[in-house]
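Hey,
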Amino acid sequence: MIRRMHPPDVLERVLRIWDEREWFYGVTEALPQTFCHQDAFRRTCPPRPEHEQTVAIDWAGAGIAP
């Protein structure tokens, strides 16, 4: 099932990101911290072009992050 859902190069890319995780941690720790939704994707932030705004819902994961 996983092979059907992901292209063949996904594992290679995931492992490369995992190997570089310390670099990513350092970069994110150096960024300014602010209050964030932390769950922003289309289902929880539906576009509303008729109002020229986006409304964020489902704030369960909100907190401080880069």
